[in-house]
Structures are given as C-alpha cells and as structure tokens.
Amino acid sequence: MPLDPQLEAMFANQPEWPPIRTVPVPALREAVRSSSIQMPPPQVSLASVSDRTIPGPAGEIPVRIYTPEGSGPFPVIAYFHGGGFVVGDLDTQDMIARGLAAGAESIVVSVDYRLAPEHKFPAAFDDCWAATQWVATNAAELGGNPALIGVAGDSAGGVLASACALLARDAGSPRLSVQINWYGPGIHPIPEEGSAIEFADGPILRLDDAHYFWELHIRDDSDFDDFRASPMKAVSHEGLPPAFIASAECDPIRDAVESYAPVLEKAGIEVEVKRYPGMVHGFVSWLGFLPGAQAAMADACAFAKKQFAAARQNA
Fold this sequence. Notes:
- There is one protein chain.
- By secondary structure, the chain is α/β, with parallel strands linked by helices.
- It contains eleven helices and eight strands.
- The chain has helices at residues 5-12, 25-37, 94-103, 123-137, 139-142, 156-171, 195-198, 207-217, 254-258, 260-266, 291-314, and strands at residues 46-56, 59-68, 74-80, 107-111, 144-154, 176-182, 243-250, 271-280.
- The active site is at 155.
- Keywords: Hydrolase.
C-alpha cells in the first residue's frame, strides 16, 4: 500500500530530514523538540497534569503525571517516550501521554529518562525500571489502584516498556496487567531484510538512522545480547503481561517490531499486533490530526481497558 495521502501531502510541503548521523546531537534534539511542540494536541479533557521528580538510580528523574477525569482509583501506566534513546523529553510526546490517559482512563506517568550518548546503555532502562517500581509503590498516593499497573512506550520507549515487563516478571513485582508498544523493535541490531530494505530510505526514519541511534546508545556490540536491548533474546517470555504491539507499514523497522509478537504468542502470552497501513515511523505523535494515529491510540487504549477489567475481576 502506498504512503497515506495525508502524510504524502504533508511531506511534500516540508524539506526532507537529513541523515541523522550528519546532524550534531544538540541540534537534532532541538529540531525534534521544536517540531514536536508545534503539533496540535489531541482534543481530550483531563482532570490534571502535573510535573514532579521521583528518586532514580543516578539522581532525581523528572516525570509528568496525567490524571483522567472521573472517579478513581484508576489504573496507572508508566509511559516512556521515543527518540532513539538520544532525543525526546516530557514535551515531545506530551500528546501521546494525554491521549493514553484519556483513552485508557488511566493515570499516566511519563518518564524523562536519561539520554545517550551522555548516558550509555543501560541508563535509560535503569531509570524506567526505577520509575515502574515507583509507580506501583505510589499508585494509591496518585489516586491509582496498585493492583492495576501497566507500561507503555513508543519506538525506543516501546523497547523500554518491553524490557520493564521482563524485569517485573523476573523480580516478581510489580505484577503488570498490560504492556503497550508502538513500533518499538523486539531485536537489535535491526536485521537488514524485508521492511529494512524496502524502506531503508524512509520516509522519516532511515535504516541508517536506526543503526546510528544505537551506535550512540550502546557501549559495545555485546549489549545487543542483553534482553533489555533485544527483548526477543530473553531466556523465557512466559509469565509476561498481555501485549499490544503496533507497527507502521512504511517503516524500515516494521518487521523487527512485529517479530516480537510470535515470540510472545509461543510463550502463551495474549498478543494483539496491528500494522497501520500507509503509516510511517513515529506516526502516533500526530494524534492531534492523523486518523491512523487516532486508530492506533484507540486500539491500544481499548486493549489496555480490557486487560485492566480482566485484572479487576481476577483480583
């Protein structure tokens, strides 16, 4: 299927992004930030949005807490933004956190984890795991239900969510009800086959961009064998929470995203995997105006609500 017509028209009026490795990291961060905060937010109503910090393994971690309208206690979802582990912050994917809080009728705690290359692997994972534990421990204080905890993320954040689900399973706590992954690959480095070849030159994300982000992120190639970097490489996938996995059709890492689903299914995990036609990497950030993004958010929220409802019944 060709690129979504709305995206095609949008890209036709914009200059093409240069290859990521040609842009200094500070300039890249500023470009992503400035373009992201200009995007219209989703038209949702929330009871409150507040910023604070929580304890982390290397100091305080900034978080933003989104509380839905209605009466709690609500489920609580730890959300991790995308950006290749190199760019992104609480503002760049504010729209996704808002949509998730309203649509899943859940408190969302968005985590401003440490970024590479200043903070190499596994710094981001350490921060997100600390935040996941904090969310579970402090759910009641936030107006949430400590028995209804989930993790979610887009792109790099989807990898972080998958890793935290594995870490929670291994630690025995918190017991997660759901994991949501919008286009976060299950394996690294990205295998150079299938969608990686078909969409090697984008649009939006090039295969070399994905490789370069990981060059900045990892310490050496041995990190690729760590399940926190490649969730598919975990020894076991049994006992994980139900997973929603979304991929974009026109994305070089599409196949690496979708390949995690059969691994989970083989381990007996409930999985809903959906490929969104005509979409590109990062498309959920256009939640404020793009029907494909709205569908991916609605599908993820419906899945989360179903899992939280089941967890309530089994409590």
